[in-house]
Amino acid sequence: MQLIFHPSRGEEIMGGLKTNCRVSAVVIFAVCVGVAGLLGLLTPIPNGCNMTYMYPTYIPIPLHPSNINFSSAEGKYGLYLYHEGWKKIDYDLHLLKLSGVPVLFIPGNGGSYKQVRSLAAESDRAFQGGPLEHTFYQEASFTPEEVVRRYSSTKRNILEEDWEIRNLFSSVKGTPQYSNRLDWFAVDLEGEHSALDGRILEEHTEYVVKAIHRILDVYKESFNARSKDNRENVGTLPRSVILVGHSMGGFVARAASIHPHLRKGVVETILTLSSPHQSPPVALQPSLGHFFSRVNKAWQSGYQIQRTRSGHWISDPLLSDVVVVSISGGIRDYQVRSKLTSLDGIVPSTHGLTIGATGMRNVWLSMEHQSILWCNQLVVQVSHAMLHLIDQSTGQPFSSTQKRLAVFVSNLRSGIPQSFDWMRSVQFQHYAEHLPIEKEEDLGSLGKLRIKDQFCCPKSIQWEDDSHERDLYIESTTVTVLAMDGRRRWMDIKRQASDGRDHFVLVTNLVPCFGVRIHLWPEKSRLALRDVPAVKRVMEVTSKMVHIPAGPAPRQIEPGSQTEQAPPSAVLRLGPDELRGFRFLTISVAPRPYFADCFWTTTSSSFNGCWSVL
Q1: Could you count the other beta carbons within 10 Å of the beta carbon of residue 4?
Q2: Which of 374, 418, 547, 561 is 20 to 30 A removed from 360 (C-alpha atoms)?
């Protein structure tokens, strides 16, 4: 006999319910994760940018028929002139008064011509308000490598080279007011997705070339009309148009400047914002990669002297008068990474400048791909830089490529050195060397160590008694100084530089020697000092601070409102080689009401470590 047992109806139902519950739980969990991820993507991340406000008016500029045959239809795109102001204006009368410096804005992938409004509005305010304070331009200069490449090949006298460089930067500092305004034009490219197809880029390039010609013709018509009416302040005719491109619009600007139908010398300055230059961000179509390759090859040969096959000179480089500045948004720009915005291998350093928004003077922010168009900190700096391009004597941009590049360097580039090479970057060499020990009898107690009166810093600087009774010993890797009371903060290098933290970074707005001093102290044990020369047993490293050019402290806008803190003005970084053989690091501060912050970092490239604000 064989017995077969069957589960009851109730057990079947319970089993089915358990299975359904498991499936439901998995589905609910997946939905929650998906919703949380979607909210994370859609939730805006604060980037520190201030909004730019404006009162825009867009004046349509019709394109006149031309004898040049272009492949793109004229009616497909459009050209506009921007006007800032809330009052209604007569378009024809406004065009008749046109006498500024023409600037053409080229939008990027899916962009709108109306994106010109932030730059145009801020440029108008900058022209009316005048240049920024001179201190914003201090210490700006070319790097030593750039100086060698720019001048050593043509000048033999070092003093003559130095005088020439100083002249370039002094010309952008002493401007009492701007001599001419910027007239902003923008092309309407119908929001086409130029990042997807190279043929769209070619059509955009052809239209931009035609728009450049039309802009110059508008100025000529306006100039002739004013001359016939015998009006005063007729002005001078512009000889070129400044191109400003965002995203793919920046690449279109470079493509237009080498177009065979473009008039000679009508494009001499190009500014790109988050624009890919090395390659397309996503090469979905072969035509896109081919177009990039063709344009970049033309640019590479454009800065070379034209010669015959036998080596005879034909002409100077075709792009010898063109300066290009590429600004990247930084780490927050996930659409066009900083590596793609580089001009390396395309534009020589004598004619090009690549800079990130995080390293721009008075900006110090990373921003999203679209935010770079309206971020007020960046827009203000760019506006003043472009207004400084205008020569006081002619009312038009400088003809010299070196002067134009010097303007961008002095207005945009930070004074922080490209590398922390202390032997070359030290800014306080006349203050500094080592602090030898006067008494070595009791190294077991650092409190009894006395230092000779041979300071790295000027002897005229008098601080309060350097007593150990008021010292503070910091246990954590971060120290916050709420008040500068003349105390000395001790940090244990061995303990706080653990877990891979082998670099110490300090950023401060205190003047080295006058407001803050940094010392390295030896081990407590005599055995640890065998490999350390006696002269290094107590060392002051204040002289290794590098100066950061910064603007003046912000002023209080309204009575009773909180005044912003002044920006940092000096940076110090100590690596493993410099810390080796020392046990303690001390931060000595002057008896003044300051605020400071600092911590240990893990990588040699880290910069956002220790903050000290006045």
Answers
A1: 4
A2: 561
pLDDT digits (tens, 9 = 90+) for 473-523: 777 776 666 556 677 888 888 777 666 677 888 877 777 777 788 888 886
How many Cα atoms within 13 Å fall on the side-chain side of residue 362?
A: 24
Asked if 223 contacts 251 with a C-beta cutoff of 8 angstroms, the reply is no
Angle between helices 401-412 and 158-170 (to 10 degrees): 60
CA–CA distance from 123 to each of 238, 295, 484, 579 (Å)? 18, 31, 41, 48
Residue 113: partners with Cβ closer than 8 Å, 6 or more residues away: 58, 78, 80, 105, 107, 186, 187, 188, 189
Q: What mean pLDDT value characterizes the chain? A: 75
Give the separation between CA 264 and CA 258, rounded to whole angstroms.
10
Q: Are 418 and 408 in contact (CB under 8 A)?
A: no
- In the chain the first and final C-alpha atoms are separated, in Å, by 97
Q: Is residue 48 helix, strand or coil?
A: coil
> What are the structure tokens assigned to 430, written together?
């006349």
Other beta carbons within 10 Å of 277? 25
How far lies 407's CA from each of 139, 346, 413, in Å? 13, 21, 10
Cβ-Cβ contacts under 8 Å for 378 (sequence gap 6 or more): 49, 327, 357, 360, 363, 365, 367, 372
